[in-house]
């Protein structure tokens, strides 16, 4: 006697087929939704341009009219009148630059640094150069929403260092810092290198931090310097960068111009673009100068690159604590240690050499200064240092007539003393 179950098999197969079709449709729908979201974000990052410049390193630099830059996506900036120049520079900024740039150890003197895209053109007047965000840039991020943002808890917290901040984030630092006063800006000349990065999700940077508030959920931070970040940029080039947050990296702020906030006024320097040339071990040394200060009249935080390139400003309304002043200034290096294979990363900080190697080998910060309430640049008082694991990355301070207050910092990461 036949079981008559052929019909059941056909029915099961039909239901299975329908399930697979609906699964495939759902996945197609999901993919097209993601594509739509991606395109929406790309349109938000990439503004209509007047001219485009192909950089030798593969970057595309778009010259965007100054009034069309990402800052003006911010609802508070709809009627903002762009301030083309700061009302005040900190006193001593230009005098200080007349100091000899030559260290006692001997050097080639000041070396000019440029950006790679300059080789192929420049942006016209009334435009600003913006590094174009490509699809693959966004797809490297953990999510479209997190693209261009730092992970939470990636800030060095000296003295009362909370172990959570060290262990949870995997970020390690070698910094000098001041606290305990009101600060209205900071300056440093930063030696530029191209540290090796072990894992694509790690980075190495050298920067200054202007910090306001506690180290809780409401920390305000303005940051600028150079970084190597394969995840963010898709290569190992050394790039100029800025960052800001008003809530400890949770929802506000971003790198460079990847969100509304920083207003750029300079047509010559592109945030996130490659710096060239860079220092070589026992050879020519190159450095960049960065000054960040608060305009006493308008309250905006301005940034200057080198001796005379005013890049732009962070409007004061972006911040709570920094709307008044900073409570801590930090200078130094930071790396991500993702502990590949359960061992310390071999991602380098600075030049990859320890501070005791000295000039031409170790990386340095020199002429470090703070801006006081009278808008005067001064040498920092009570400079402290901090590092989580000095056998992996270290810092050593000093001072002399030529370099003012300075420090060497950095290291190789993984080594026999840093397993």
From TrEMBL:
Compositional bias annotation for Basic residues: 147-156
One Pfam family linked to the record: Neprosin_AP
Span of the signal peptide: 1-26
Superkingdom of the organism of origin: Eukaryota
Segments for region (Disordered): 89-118, 147-166
Keywords, ordered alphabetically: Signal
Feature: compositional bias, Basic and acidic residues: 95-105
Bias (Polar residues): 108-117
Ranges of residues in domain Neprosin PEP catalytic: 165-419
Name this protein carries in UniProt: Putative neprosin
Upper taxonomic lineage: Eukaryota, Viridiplantae, Streptophyta, Embryophyta, Tracheophyta
